[in-house]
From TrEMBL:
InterPro entries: Leu-rich_rpt (IPR001611), LRR_dom_sf (IPR032675), LRR_extensin-like_regulator (IPR051582)
Superkingdom of origin organism: Eukaryota
Keyword set includes Transcription: no
CC per GO annotation: extracellular region
Species this chain originates from: Olea europaea subsp. europaea
Chain segments annotated as transmembrane: none
Name assigned to this protein: Uncharacterized protein
Statement: the UniProt record of this protein carries the keyword Transport: no
PANTHER family: LEUCINE-RICH REPEAT EXTENSIN-LIKE PROTEIN 3-RELATED, POLLEN-SPECIFIC LEUCINE-RICH REPEAT EXTENSIN-LIKE PROTEIN 1
Compartments reported by the entry: Secreted
Keywords: Repeat, Secreted, Signal
Pfam families documented for this protein: LRR_1
Length: 166
């Protein structure tokens, strides 16, 4: 499936929990839009496997931690929007205008500087611990999801039914 699915558009679905590492199996996907949900925690390991992704939209969630260089150095990436989260660190390549041809929107996070959340808002949100392994969204051995899938990639719950995409 990873080599044939071109777009994953899951914006505005009120999805919650951590982003599973199985997202990295979508290595042929060009557009991944997970914006405006309630996804939490750090970004999963293995995002460097998304070699074909051109647009990665993860804005308006509750992600935290570091925005790694492995995302911003993806060879085909031209739009990376991670605004309105709670990220506290980012690789220098993930700053706006750092990579020619890459649009980056990093506003309204917890970085030092302009156009960011208030410090008290960040402290309040970041004081609540998130353990993606305990929640069941990630394996206890980091990196395993990008090599050997152990769960469905996505579970979508709708009124009265569950759709699992493997």
């Amino acid at each position: 499936m990873g080599n044939t699915l071109e777009e994953v558009l899951f914006s505005n679905n009120i999805f919650s929990g951590c982003l599973p590492e199985e997202i990295t199996l979508l290595n042929g996907t060009k557009v991944i839009d997970l914006s405006s949900n309630k996804l939490i925690g750090d970004l999963p390991e293995g995002l460097e496997y998304l070699q074909q992704v051109e647009t990665l939209e993860i804005a308006n969630n509750i992600f935290r931690g570091n925005v790694p260089e492995t995302v911003c150095s993806l060879p085909n990436l031209n739009n990376f929007t991670f605004s309105s989260n709670y990220f506290t660190a980012k690789d220098p390549m993930c700053k706006p205008n750092a990579v020619q041809g890459l649009f980056v929107d990093d506003k309204n996070n917890c970085f030092p500087g302009k156009n960011q959340r208030l410090e008290k808002v960040c402290k309040a949100a970041l004081s609540r611990p998130v353990n993606c392994t305990a929640i069941g969204c990630r394996p206890s051995n980091p990196g395993i999801g990008s090599k050997t899938p152990h769960k469905p990639i996505v579970r979508v719950k709708t009124r009265g039914s569950t759709l699992a995409i493997k």
